[in-house]
Amino acid sequence: MKEMKRVLTRRDFIRGTIGVTIGTSILGFRWPKAEAQAARSSLVTIVRDENAMDTSFNVDRTILKKMLEQTLTKVTGRKNSKEAWLSLLNPGDTIGLVPTPHLNPTHDEVVDVVRNSLVDAGIPGESILDAQGRDSPEKVKKCTALIGLPALKAHWLTGIGTVIKNYILFSGNPRGYHQSDSSKLGEIWKLPFVKGKTKLVLVDSLYPLCDKGPQPDPRYKWAYNGLIAGTDPVAVETVCLKIIETKREAIRGEPWPLSPPPICIEAADKVYGLGTSRVEEIRVEHYGWEKDLLI
Amino acid sequence: MRMLQKTSFFLIFFVSVYVFFEGAVVESEASAIDLPKTVGVWTRPETPQIINSENIFEYMNGAGELYLGYRFRHLEAFEYTSEEQAGILVELYFMETSDDAFGLLSLDWGGEIIFFGGIPGDRSNPSLDSSTRALYGAGLLRMWSDDLYVRVMAFRETPASRQAVLALAEAIAANRMNPPEPRLLTALSAQIGSVWALRKDRLSFFRSYLSLNSVYYLSHENILDLNLSTEAVMVTYENVAGSGEQRRSQFLVVQYENRERARKALNRFHEAYLPEHQEAFTTDLADKGPRLFKIEDGWLAYKLIGNYVAIVFECPDRETAGMIIEGNEPDLPK
């Protein structure tokens, strides 16, 4: 029988061999880095408030500010927002905020509340940049720390388009990371000017989008009224995925898997060692409104 | 040297003529849809934003791949604005054929079915009993109208915006033809045996593997060689009498330009999807009767039928897998 390139197919997902197939195709037969295999425990917090948005989906900034404070103290174990930020960042850091610009964009209110909170913690306003956009590689190079601020959403080319995919423009070649190459999204986090800079991932989960698009369809948006956060991007993405999958099944009343499947998550764990995608290694803590938590 | 100058002149001339007439086509089509200047409290700009295959990614990022996966010509976008309410976005996707516009709608049959009256559309397969051409939900209306695929979306749904969205859609659809669904749908049997019924809300028409993967993930690579010259339908059959776990099977049929292309595509599919059965693939066998394989999620069957490839996925037993292929074979368009 002739030697053939392994092609990732539906059967890999059924058999649970996706990590092996992706690892083989990307890294040859080398298996991932040791850090990806070591025992880990990652904390992901979910803070929700029923009144974070009104019935017209307008965001209440006062409530949002309280949700952020609670998120920061729970993620870091510090007493207040200032201490929390300073445990994650250095006062001299140039900080890049990375919101999601398209499809289901990050609320401006979320970006503003984070920026104000950083300033209140003593970070000079001029040291806080918007690091998203087509010119983002140059902007990110100026930053010494990044805060991911994606919005919770599915994506029609990559399955999920929240945490890992949020840095796609840093690559300078976004089309190179769609479909089969979406498994390689994790490599963007390893670029020399990106690696190690992400100090916090804070997912705007106020009004998520659970279908993949490709364009926004309001039937698949719902008021979750939450902020999801952690320092492990893969663990945060894994929790986001669970919420989206559960919501999809609730909408249709029958299994409705994301299609294509979000291979970038498992690859980010097993191939790039960015964090854990194993549910048993993720500690989820939730605070506030419990209705339809979906996890 | 003179020869080179002469060649350059003709080249520039032909390119200029091409660009001029291409532009003229777009302009002429732009005026083909008579959108009202105002609807309710909303007013549109004089001219639309025109998007073509060159700049579609600037307009909608990766979403452009969806439209380029069908036979896309251009898009006109108008945003109706109002001082009192959030805006309404009208997007008119001009496609090369009615089949392409149908395909875009067919990716999601959810929502409230909207009828605008007028002459009912033709149907290619009356047994499917599906004449849906417009669907509305939560402020978004999607519509198939001849070679036009339409999205009209209120950024915030209110009773007034719903009324405006429906009025705009009705104005767009007025006096337009209602061609039948793609011919490939004529092959589909609404019922297989006594218990397997076709799910009309899970029937999608497409040409690209990106669209296939968005309705039923097969592979991150194009293992069926789909492209703009192919036509494909994916549909779910449901066991209406069953109560077990495996109540649904998927049926895919792809029409290729010719038998040779179909044969090559099936060969590639077999190699990628059934690598442990390499010894089992021969083209001679592939078109004699359904080839059947037991894999992780049930029985898989395929058959090469002229310039068609038919495949069944996730079937609970081999008999049904064969029945679904054979039940859909006789009416494939010749």
Summarize the structure in words.
The complex is a heterodimer of chains A (295) and B (334). Chain A is of the alpha/beta class and 295 residues long. Chain A has helices spanning 10-15, 18-27, 34-37, 61-76, 81-88, 108-120, 136-142, 233-252, 263-270; strands at 42-48, 95-99, 128-130, 145-149, 151-155, 159-160, 198-209, 226-230, 282-288. The termini of chain A are far apart. In chain A, 50% of the residues are buried. Helices cover 30% and strands 28% of the residues of chain B. Chain B contains 9 helices and 16 strands. In chain B, strand 10 and strand 11 (196-206) form a beta hairpin. The N and C termini of chain B lie far apart (54 Å). Chain A binds chain B through residues 1, 4, 7-11, 13-15, 56-57, 102-103, 155-157, 174-175, 178-180, 182-183, 211-219, 221, 257, 259-261, 263, and chain B through 57, 60-63, 65-66, 108, 110-111, 137-140, 151, 153, 156-157, 210, 213-221, 223, 271-273, 275, 278-279, 295-297.
Throw out a few tags for this protein.
heterodimer, A: 295 residues, alpha/beta, nine-stranded mixed β-sheet, 31% helix, 17% strand, B: 334 residues, alpha+beta, Protein Transport Mog1p, Chain A, 2 domains, seven-stranded antiparallel β-sheet
Can I get a quick summary?
The complex is a heterodimer of chains A (295) and B (334). Chain A has 295 residues and is of the alpha/beta class.
Largest sheet of chain B: 7 strands, antiparallel
- Strand-and-helix sequence of chain B, N→C? HEEEHHEEHEEEEHEEHEEHHEEEH
How does CATH name the architecture of the largest domain in chain B? 3-Layer(aba) Sandwich
> What's the average pLDDT of chain B?
87
Q: Tell me, what's the shape of chain B? A: elongated
For the largest beta sheet of chain B, what order do the strands appear in spatially?
3-4-5-9-8-7-6
Overall pLDDT score of chain A: 90
The end-to-end span of chain B amounts to: 54 Å
Helix/strand/pairing category of chain B: alpha+beta
Please give the share of residues in helix of chain B: 25-40%
User: Largest sheet of chain A, described in full?
Assistant: 9 strands, mixed
Number of domains of chain A: 1
Radius of gyration of chain B: 23 Å
Query: Helical stretch count of chain A?
Result: 9
The domain tally of chain B reads 2
Oligomer: heterodimer
Separation, N- and C-terminal Cα atoms of chain A: 46 Å
CATH fold-type name of the largest domain in chain B: Protein Transport Mog1p, Chain A
According to DSSP, the number of beta strands of chain B is 16
CATH class of the largest domain in chain B: Alpha Beta
